Amino acid sequence: MSEPTHTENLDRTGSAALPWSRARDLLATQTPHENLTFFVGTIRPDGRPHAAGVGAIWVDDALYFKGGPGTRRSRNLAANPACTVSVRLNGLDLTMEGEAHRVTDEPTLEKVAAVFREGGWPATVVGDGLTAPFTAPSAGPPPWHLYVLTLHRAIGVAGAEPHGASRWDFTR
């Protein structure tokens, strides 16, 4: 991922714009080691929203998350890759907007599975997906799909010093 093409200060109290590096560095250091819950928002075929908690990690400057092939999330993404991903990092609430696409190439699957293992989820690659002795009960049977988020926009609101709120655009 590249640096944002545009940063907008959303703070109305006089704080300076937040640098993207703050969000990026928190993602890099807190995943997979911190107990974080990510929420993916997708769009159902009839236009209604859907949100679900997911296991997600930041690897090589990109966000990856998993989903069972039969889950509403995976079915929605197959029809429309537009989505949001939200997380409360230590000191920063972050919402990311973009498109999620399935990852099937073995080198990337192996690299991401290794990072999941580092964080305590014993993922291995099977075929073009991931498996492990356990995952969320709602995920269905393995193998589970792996997705990568192509980031278009992110919004961060800092709950810790230095305070502020910013929007980062990655495409124009």
Overview of the molecule:
The protein has 172 residues and is of the alpha+beta class. It is built from three helices and eleven strands. Strands 1, 2, 3, 4, 5, 6, 7, 10 and 11 form a nine-stranded antiparallel β-sheet that branches. It has a two-stranded antiparallel ribbon with strand order 8-9. The protein is globular. Pfam families: PNPOx_N. This is Pyridoxamine 5'-phosphate oxidase N-terminal domain-containing protein. Keywords: Oxidoreductase. Residues 33-113 form the Pyridoxamine 5'-phosphate oxidase N-terminal domain.
Features:
F420H2_bilvrd_red/Heme_oxyg; 172 residues; 3 helices; nine-stranded antiparallel sheet; Pyridox_Oxase_N; alpha+beta
What's the gist of this structure?
This protein is an alpha+beta fold and 172 residues long.
Q: What is the molecular shape? A: globular
Assess the beta-strand content as a share of residues.
35-45%
Structural class: alpha+beta
Termini separation: 15 Å
Tell me the helix content: 10-25%
Most strands sheet = 9 strands, antiparallel
Residue runs with pLDDT of under 50 for 5 or more positions: none
Mean pLDDT: 95
**SSE series:** EHEEEEHEEHEEEE
Number of E-state strands: 11
DSSP summary: helix tally: 3
* Integer-rounded radius of gyration: 16 Å
